[in-house]
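ENTRY TYPE: paired fold submission
RECORD: A
CONTENT: sequence, then structure tokens
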Amino acid sequence: MAGLFLGWAAFAQMMPDSTVQVVAYWQVGDKYSYQVEQSTSRIEGNDTTVVEKSAEILTFEVLEATDSTYRVLVSYDDFQHSDYARLRAHDALEKAFGKTNLQFITDSFGTYQRMILPESFQEEGEAALEEYAREMCKERGLGEDAMETVKTIARGLISPEAYSKAAEAEITPLLAFHGTRLDLKREYESSIQQPTLIGEGTIPMTLRFWVDENYTDSTSVVIRTYQEAEKGALAPFIANMLGQMAQNVTSEDVSEGINYISQADMTMEDFQVLEVHLDTGWPLFYSFNREVVTRLGDQEQRQVVLKRVTMMD
């Protein structure tokens, strides 16, 4: 499996030997925007409830290209969210940092390497967290003694670490196969450790991916991915993560939630589709569908996350 991710000749795209390679042929000044839409729904029996919806515009701009790396500016615009707290968290970040711009580095194939955070990010993030907590306490009629509790809960949304992880989680799926040479006739499988956006640790998962020949031609390649959490791994991980987040929070609801998840049987499946333009290496379309099923006794609840990333004209 390791050999699959080794670099190959950069001039190759659709190979004559039934393989295809995704390579970045980017130029300084390249700039592409994407419409990002996401929703989370909860399904119980025949009832479906939309828990939250969000949308934003994601833009990539190549700032620097060398023989071995690309440096890319990523910016976010027109953020919308159905959850008031998330919207205010975004507003607090934008007030502290100004317009949200980050940079990341890839290798010469376009494979993601690392995020570049401004030196002032940590200090400004703490300022944003303080302001957000103060405003939320004021608007919800909470006293000063609630400030630390609100900050603890909000840290997962506003801290520089959380923000960097969230940005990486949005960027890396679009570049997941850059530098990879894939056999059109083969389905690949491996075991992975899936990082989470909040808290520490990873979830062990089984990953399968393959090229969809029905939608792949000399213009673009379509890669489908399926992954599932290993049996019995999800519930204890989430219960532990909630416990870490709630260390400084005294709440009966939190304790009951952790207890419920600890006893439940949980499964998680992800389905992804990625289309990449072969001549340039820019992603054209990405979709993500996650289904988490929680069973306890005769009760069953499904949570479905849908995400679409579409290149704009």
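RECORD: B
CONTENT: sequence, then structure tokens
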Amino acid sequence: MSITSASGLTVNTLAGATRWLRLALSWTTASLAVASVPAVAEDWTRTLAVTTAFSDNVDRASASPRSDLAYIGEVGFSYQRDSGRLTADIDANYRYLGYARDTFDRQGYPGLAGIVDLRILPERFSWHLEDEYGQVAPSPFGALNPLDTQDVNYLTTGPTINLPLGALVAVNFTAEYSATDYSVSDIDNQQIGGTGQLVRRWGASRYLSLNYSRQKIDYDRNDLYQDYFIDKAFMRLESSVRRTSFAIDVGSMTYELEHARRNTPLLAATAYRQIGTRTRIGIDYFQGYSDSAEAFRLDRLGGASPTEQDVIVEAGPSRSKQASGFVMIGTPRFTSQVSIHYGNEEFEQNPASDRRIRGLAVEASLQMSPRTSLNAFGSIENFNERLLDDDVDDTFVGLGLVYQLTAYTKLELKLVRYERNSNLGEDFAENRVSLTWQYRKSTLVRPPAYDPFRGRGVPLPGAMERNRTPVPTSTP
């Protein structure tokens, strides 16, 4: 789902599901891996960007709109490493936002999405560390201005013990401690849990496992919010071959509050397929219990995006159904992607926040010359908050012209229009124009020598390498 801040920057919350699938598969394969020491793969990426953006309705008001010029500076880096003992995937950035007419106060927005797995005793004992830091909008329909956010930090860590029972069977045990902290909401909590898994390998890359986990959620303000337990029992089938990867979970989840127990089916499926050299397709589905911390974490698996606007901050779990799919087609000069998503949340402790989300997004990129590309994008989303029967339709369309200055720097001119229609009278329209200079350099691949006359060394658009499908709300 694409959302847009009042600063004029588009934030894509359809995060990287390929990263989620890699985590899901690696948790099982680690216990049955063939003893070997892989070659070290490492990549550092540095990013620096400066943007000016003019908006004719900077506060997105229904009446008496105000215009202003925003200026944004952003610095970021990402680090990936895969070696025999260490796997790391870290993305961090900092965004500074100000306004020429001081419509809003100047703000800084830090972001972090980091996962580190240390194999202390390879194939026997490992330690997992993950931290996700960013901002969420308290409104179920997203922030209407840059100040309508709060900081969230999600930290989880714990060991995994792998006990092989022969060449094809293993038993795994995982213990985890998690903490979620909010800068405004008073639902800070800790989570303590454990998971047991019996897994059998079929062939080189197929696995069948039986899984059970129990988790306790303990609120700091237990005078206001009740602690509860979440149990999961399920079977998982997973496979990863050259062109197809999938994982399927089937089981049951239990929500336990004091002495009351409620059950719901657990069904999760993720599948990705490469068709030929030009087409990729993917689907995700989840049905079961989720919560605000898990939704925030999963929304950020694609990177440290500054604001997550499809996360509702509420105490207690929700009965959640999430479905999404995408089709991506690319040629050397043209790439396109169509994605759809659906979400339904029913909160156990606060039904007033129940909502439904439906959306469609389209992106296309045309390489007009070795240096110039034209991008077009658009999305339509419908939000429904059941208690107030508030029905909101958001429409977002835009064009972007990108000019590659050098192998590492580019300019982008972007024109966008954002409209909202609500049956409660919260309608508005906003038009924006922005200009961005960006520097981005990666150490993984050394670009060829740059020729200013022929444009050699200028990379093609990276749309085929950006998997922006929604992340399923299910993790191992």
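NOTES ON RECORD B: Residues 1-31, 33-38, 445-476 have pLDDT under 50 and may be disordered. The chain has one domain: 2-465.
STATUS: closed
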